[in-house]
Write a structure and sequence with these properties.
Helix content: 40-55%
Number of strands: 5
Strand content: 5-15%
Largest sheet: 5 strands, parallel
Order of helices and strands: EHHEHEHEHEHH
Shape: globular
Number of helices: 7
Structural class: alpha/beta
Length: 154
């Protein structure tokens, strides 16, 4: 992963306010990186930068809304090595109609050793880490033996 990170930003409806407060508090640092956001979260973040921080250049890509496929788009980007850090403020108190997509995102982050953040406290630790501003070599797992086993089962 390069010094300039690609950061996925996702928030359930009940956590969008928390996400916006966190982005607002870290706007300057985030503006130095690329952001990829699901639907409404991304529009809110873009609006906030446009109105509150027009002096900061931002690189932001908007995906579809999470339940409409944005979570899956984010997962595909992670699998393709295009996302370095996923910050996903989840709502632990509400069942989501797309819970399987959320679980799939967490799983794909584990498969590709992608940083995944689900709480504000963890987001604070990650963005404050010296690794956030430097190059980092994440693990590259070899799933060849797993794939061979799967082929033999057919």
């Amino acid at each position: 992963m390069e010094r300039i990170k690609t950061i996925g930003l996702v928030a359930h409806d009940a956590r969008k306010r928390d996400m916006m407060e966190w982005v607002r508090a870290n706007a300057e640092k985030l503006s130095a990186h690329k952001m990829i956001c699901t639907g409404t979260t991304g529009r809110l973040i873009k609006e906030m930068f446009d109105t509150e921080h027009p002096e900061l250049p931002i690189n932001i890509e908007l995906l579809k809304s999470g339940p409409l496929g944005g979570d899956q788009q984010m997962g595909a980007l992670i699998a393709g090595g295009k996302v370095d850090v996923l910050i996903f403020f989840t709502d632990p108190m509400t069942t989501q109609p797309h819970d399987v997509d959320v679980k799939a995102l967490m799983r794909i982050c584990s498969v590709y050793d992608t940083v995944i953040v689900c709480t504000k406290a963890t987001a604070d630790f990650v963005i404050a880490s010296p690794l956030f501003e430097s190059a980092y070599e994440s693990a590259k797992y070899d799933y060849g033996s797993y794939l061979e086993r799967e082929l033999r089962c057919d």
